[in-house]
Specification:
It is a single chain. With 424 residues, this protein is of the alpha+beta class. The longest helix is centred in the first third of the chain and has 15 residues. Strands 6, 7, 8, 13, 14, 16, 17 and 22 form an eight-stranded mixed beta sheet that branches. It is globular and about 75 Å long. A hairpin with a 2-residue loop joins strand 2 and strand 3. The structure holds calcium ion (CA).
C-alpha cells in the first residue's frame, strides 16, 4: 500500500539525497550493516544520499522510538524478525526525521550520519538458508536448448513448478569480496574420463535475491499473499557458476559444486515497501498455475538491471547486458509459496535467488553462457579484448534501480573480482 513515504515530491534536508541520480533518495531507505572509522562495532544503518543513518545512534538518542539493541547487531535479522508492523513504523519515522518537513530536528539527526565513503559495508543478513530458483522463461529456454534439446528446451514441469535447489548459505558474500576461481571435476565431450582442475567456464548469473523477513512455522504452508507479505526486501545477487563443472555434475540432482563456491549480494536491502510504486503484474501464465500458486495481485517489480565488466588490463568498465526484473515468469512470492508448500519452515534471513534474469534480446541476457552461446560467439570488448567466460582479474558489477519521476530507488551494486585458482 502506498503512503506518505512514497510521495515522489518528498525531499530531504540532506541535499545529496535529492540528486536525481542518487540510488538512495528519501523514498528508498534501504537497510544495511556497517562499521566506520569512528566505530568498529557493526551497526544497522539506512542509506540516505551519500550518507548512512546509524540507527543505533539515532535510537539511543531517543529520536527514533525503537529499542536500540535491534541495531547494535552485525546483521538485520533481529530487526526483520520483529515483523512488518515494525518495518513500516521504522520507515515512516525515518522518512519524517529526514524530510524537509522536519527541519527542527535536522541538527540532532545529523549526529547519527556517517558518510558512506568512510564506512565499510558488511553482509547485511545472516543467511539462514539459500535457495536458488530458475524463473526466467527466456533463460531456461536458452539453457535447455544448449544443454539438452532445442525442441524440448523447457522441461515438462517448468511451466507448473517454480524450479529450485538448495544452495549454500555459507558462501554468500557481500559486494567487494574477491572470488577465487574454483576447481572441480571436468569432462570435456572429447574426453572419456573426467579430470580435476580449475574451471574453464567461469560465469555470472544476474539475479535478484528476495530476503525472508517473517518466518512460517514448520508444517504451515503460506498462501501467495502471505508469502508476499513475509518478504522483507531485495538485493542484487550474482550466482557465480562453473559451467563445465555444472554440465558434468548436474544430472540427476541438479547443481552442486558448480554453484557452491560463491554468491555475491549487494550490501543494501531495498525493502519491499520501498518497491511498492514499482510493483507490476508479471507475464500471463499458461497453463494457469495450480490454485495454491495463483498470483492475483501484482508480484513482479520493474527493476532496470545491468552487468558491467572490467578486465585486469582495462581502465574502464563496460556494460555487457541490460535487462529488467519485471518479465520473470514466476514471482518471488510464488517461489516462497512453493518453498513452504510441503510444510518447509522458512526462516528470517532465508535468501531466495530469483534465477538468472534474461530478456528476449541478445543484449539482455543475464549470463555469459547465453551472451556467448556457451563460448561459441566471443563477446568483443571495447579495448580489443574478447570474452567467452570470466577470466582471472576480471571485475563483474551488477547494478539495478527502479526509475521514478525525478528519483530512483537504487540497489547500489554487487561487485566481485576473480582471483586465480589455487594451485593443485
Ligand atoms: Ca542461478
Amino acid at each position: 500500500m502506498l503512503n506518505a513515504t512514497h510521495d515522489p515530491s518528498l525531499i530531504s534536508w540532506l541535499t545529496s539525497a535529492n540528486n536525481a541520480d542518487t540510488d538512495f533518495p528519501i523514498q528508498n531507505l534501504p537497510f544495511g550493516v556497517f562499521t566506520s572509522a569512528q566505530n568498529n562495532q557493526p551497526h544497522v544503518g539506512v542509506a540516505i544520499g551519500s550518507d548512512i543513518v546509524d540507527l543505533y545512534v539515532l535510537a539511543e538518542s531517543g529520536l527514533l522510538d525503537i529499542d536500540p539493541s535491534l541495531f547494535d547487531e552485525a546483521n538485520i535479522n533481529k530487526f526483520m524478525a520483529q515483523g512488518s508492523d515494525m518495518w513500516t513504523r521504522c520507515r515512516q519515522h525515518l522518512s519524517q526525521l529526514l524530510s524537509t518537513q522536519n527541519l527542527v530536528l535536522q541538527q540532532k539527526v545529523s549526529l547519527a550520519l556517517v558518510p558512506q565513503n568512510t564506512a565499510t559495508l558488511l553482509l547485511p543478513i545472516k543467511v539462514e538458508g539459500y535457495t536458488d530458483f530458475y524463473a526466467s522463461k527466456e533463460h531456461a529456454t536458452n539453457v535447455g536448448t544448449m544443454f539438452r534439446d532445442p525442441k524440448n528446451a523447457l522441461m515438462p514441469n517448468w511451466l507448473h513448478i517454480p524450479i529450485g535447489y538448495n544452495g549454500r548459505a555459507s558462501t554468500v558474500v557481500v559486494s567487494g569480496t574477491d572470488v577465487r576461481r574454483p576447481s572441480g571435476q571436468l569432462k570435456p565431450a572429447t574426453n572419456n574420463k573426467p579430470h580435476f582442475g580449475p574451471t574453464q567456464k567461469l560465469d555470472i548469473e544476474l539475479e535478484m535475491g528476495a530476503i525472508v523477513g517473517a518466518p512460517n512455522e514448520m508444517g504451515t504452508p503460506l498462501t501467495v499473499e502471505q508469502a508476499q507479505a513475509n518478504i522483507f526486501g531485495f538485493v542484487l545477487l550474482n550466482d557465480w557458476s562453473a559451467r563445465d563443472v555444472q554440465v558434468w555434475e548436474y544430472q540427476p540432482l541438479g547443481p552442486f559444486q558448480a554453484k557452491a563456491f560463491a554468491t555475491t549480494i549487494s550490501p543494501w536491502v531495498v525493502t519491499q515497501e520501498a518497491l511498492q510504486p514499482f510493483c507490476v503484474h508479471g507475464p500471463e501464465q499458461h497453463p494457469k498455475p495450480l490454485a495454491y500458486l495463483a498470483q492475483i495481485q501484482p508480484g513482479n517489480y520493474d527493476v532496470e538491471l545491468q552487468v558491467d565488466i572490467q578486465t585486469q588490463v582495462s581502465s574502464l568498465s563496460q556494460t555487457i547486458s541490460q535487462t529488467n526484473f519485471r518479465a520473470m515468469y514466476w514471482s518471488s512470492a510464488q517461489q516462497l509459496t512453493h518453498h513452504s508448500s510441503s510444510g518447509c519452515a522458512m526462516q528470517t534471513g532465508d535468501l531466495l535467488g530469483s534465477g538468472t534474469i534474461s530478456g528476449s534480446t541478445k543484449d539482455s541476457l543475464g549470463s555469459l553462457l547465453e551472451l556467448t552461446w556457451n563460448g561459441q560467439n566471443p563477446l568483443p570488448l571495447a579495448n580489443g579484448e574478447e570474452r567467452r567466460f570470466v577470466e582471472d582479474g576480471d571485475t563483474l558489477t551488477l547494478q539495478g534501480h527502479c526509475q521514478g519521476q525525478g528519483y530512483r530507488i537504487g540497489f547500489g551494486s554487487a561487485v566481485g573480482k576473480i582471483l586465480p585458482a589455487h594451485r593443485l
